[in-house]
Amino acid sequence: EPTVRTELMEQIPPIAIFLQESRPKFPTAFFEYLMPIVVRYLTDVNNQVRKAGQEALLILLEQDLVAQSDIENKVCPILLDLSAPDSDDEYKVEAVNIICKMASMLSRTTVEHMLLPRFCELCSDGKLFQVRKICAANFGDICNAVGQEATERLLIPKFFELCSDSVWGMRKACAECFMAVSYTTSPEVRRSKLSPLFISLISDTCRWVRQAAFQSLGPFISTFANPSSAGLYIREDGTLSIRPSTQDMNSNSCQPSNNITLMSSSTNAT
């Protein structure tokens, strides 16, 4: 019964945490018995079971409970198969969504060598606009996961494609994550390539795209500032913040020293 398999998936993370805490007693139980179940349920015929499996996998990755060898030899190959060009549409949409979500939890080497080539292919998927939209909405996170060199070499050309996509929702998603993409690039790329691209979005024929671009204008401009002098930095949750100067903190010692959040770096389009 699918409901039984779904309930089972919801219990995997707490069991895995228990096994992790009791490793001397159960040194290989998770890797031998539980991890294969999680991987298998990623391809279950029932979508609720697959969704539960995906959520369990993300929790396990977030808690750093999955071995690097299992990620590279078991998880990534399954996701690459599910997101292949000839894969079922529903499976492909789910696969690209989980690839984007797990990118920030994996090592840069793993993302760049195993997942980035497929992500670039999915950005140009001509069959499903839903796939391209997921890629556009999570573009900034992928750039942050792979760093400047891979972003400028492989991702910026794909970003240009998405920014000129015929579907306005794609262009809007690009405008919303523009600051996060810009933050990952060099000042020269920012000036010579991204600035003209942003002008095209702020002049877009669709008012929703223009509105999103205007909302991202300030955060995009802030990426041109010198972080050390401006006090700008990106939080772990992807928001652009200002770190108060020592002088300001001393003069307002009675005030809370909370950082000021300007705007989220990306908004997941629905």
From TrEMBL:
<dbReference type="GO" id="GO:0019888">
    <property type="term" value="F:protein phosphatase regulator activity"/>
</dbReference>
<dbReference type="InterPro" id="IPR051023">
    <property type="entry name" value="PP2A_Regulatory_Subunit_A"/>
</dbReference>
<protein>
    <submittedName>
        <fullName>Serine/threonine-protein phosphatase 4 regulatory subunit 1</fullName>
    </submittedName>
</protein>
<dbReference type="InterPro" id="IPR016024">
    <property type="entry name" value="ARM-type_fold"/>
</dbReference>
<feature type="repeat" description="HEAT">
    <location>
        <begin position="115"/>
        <end position="154"/>
    </location>
</feature>
<keyword id="KW-0677">Repeat</keyword>
<dbReference type="InterPro" id="IPR021133">
    <property type="entry name" value="HEAT_type_2"/>
</dbReference>
<dbReference type="InterPro" id="IPR000357">
    <property type="entry name" value="HEAT"/>
</dbReference>
<dbReference type="Pfam" id="PF02985">
    <property type="entry name" value="HEAT"/>
</dbReference>
<dbReference type="GO" id="GO:0005737">
    <property type="term" value="C:cytoplasm"/>
</dbReference>
<dbReference type="InterPro" id="IPR011989">
    <property type="entry name" value="ARM-like"/>
</dbReference>
<feature type="region of interest" description="Disordered">
    <location>
        <begin position="246"/>
        <end position="270"/>
    </location>
</feature>
